[in-house]
Amino acid sequence: MIDEKQLWKERLIAYVAQVRRYGRYMFNDHLLIVLFIAVGAGAYVYKQWTDSLQQFPYAIVASIIFAFVLTSSGVRTLLKEADTVFLLPVERNMRPYFFRAGVYSFVVHMSICMMIAIALFPLHRTFSSQSFVLLCVVLFPLKGWNMLVQWKEDAFSQRSLFHRCIRFLLNVMAMYFFLVGAYAFVVTMAVIMMIVARYITRSVKNTPLKWDVLLEDETRRMQSFYRVVHLFVDVPHLRKTVKKRYWLSPLLRIVDRATKQAYTYLHVRTFVRSGEYLGIVTRLTVIGAIFIYTIPTGYVFFSLLFTYATALQLLPLFSHHRSHPMLALYPLTMTKRRQSVLGIWLIVFGMQTALFTMLSTFIVSLSAGTAVLIAEGLLCTLLIMYVKKKWKEAE
C-alpha cells in the first residue's frame, strides 16, 4: 500500500532540496549585489514617485493587480510521469496527498499576495481609508476561493479561458468594492462566489482525476523553473520547446541562407521559434515601457534594468545548440558563430533602446531621451565587451 502522506512529504523534501541546490548557483555574490542595488534604487524611485502624487486611481489599479495575483491559483502537485501508472489504481486514496499539495500551494500563493500588498502599502496608506491589516485578511478567503475553483476545473473538468476571465472580473469587482468601502456589494460578490464554488463542486462530483492535465501542468511549471536556472548553470532536466509561429516566417526569409550565414540563419530561427527567447524579450520590453510610462522619474533606471534583464535572457542563445552533433559539420569557424549571436543581440538591443528612448522623449523631455540613449549605448557596449572577454578566456 502507498502511504499518501509520506509520499507527499518525500516529494516536497526532494523538491525543496533541488531548489536549494540550484539556488546556490543562481544567487551568487555578483547577482546578490546587482539585486541589492536594483531593489534599493527601485525603492528610492518608487518612494519619490509616490510622494509626488496628488491624485491616483488606487482602487482601480490595486484591484486589477490583486485580481491578476488571485486568479493565478494553480496547485503544485509535484507529480511525475510514472504516477499516471502507479498511482492511478489508488486514485480514490490520494485525497490526503492532494490536500497537502493544496495547503503548500496556498502558503506559496499567499506569500506572493503579501509581497504585492506590502509593495502597494505606500499607495494604500495615501489613497485608501481601508485598514491595511483588513486588506491582508480579505486576501485569504479570496485566494482560497480561486484555488478551489481552479483546482476543480483543472483536475476534474474542462479548462476554460472564459471561466478564467469570469473569475478575474469577480476578483476585480470584489477588491474594488472593498477598497472603496461598498460593503453591501462586497457581500453580494461573496454570495456570488459561494454559489459559483458550490455549482462547480457539484458539477464535478464523482468525476475521475485528469492525470494527464495535472502532469502537463506540473511539467510546464518545472520546465519554467529549469529555464530560469539554465541562465546560470546547465540543467540536464531542461527540455527544449519549439513554437512554429507562422506569422513570423517572413522574417526568416530576410536572412541570407548562404553557406557563410548558416549560423545567422540558425540563431535567428532559434530566437523566433524557441519558447525561451522571443516571448520573454517581448514581455520584458513591454513591462519596461509600462514602468517608464507610469513612473517617469526613473526612466534611466528602468531602461537600464530591463535591458540588462534582456541581456541575461539572451545569453544562453550562443550555447542553445551546443549539444547538437550536427553543428560540428558546419564548415565555419567559431568566430562566425559568435558574430551571428552578437548581430542578433545588437538588433534586439537597438530596437529596445529605440523604444525606451522615444518613450522617454515623449513623456519627459528630449534631454531625457538623450540620456536614455547614451546610458543604453554604454550598457550595451559594456555587456558586449564583457561577453567577448569571456569568450576569449574560454578559448
UniProtKB/TrEMBL annotation:
The chain crosses the membrane at residues 30-46, 58-79, 99-120, 132-148, 168-196, 277-295, 340-363, 369-387. GO terms for cellular component: membrane. InterPro entries: EcsB_ABC (IPR010288). The keyword Ion transport does not apply. It holds the Pfam family EcsB. Keywords: Membrane, Transmembrane, Transmembrane helix. It comes from the Bacteria. The keyword Cell membrane does not apply. This is ABC-2 type transport system permease protein. It comes from Anoxybacillus pushchinoensis. The lineage of its organism: Bacteria, Bacillati, Bacillota, Bacilli, Bacillales.
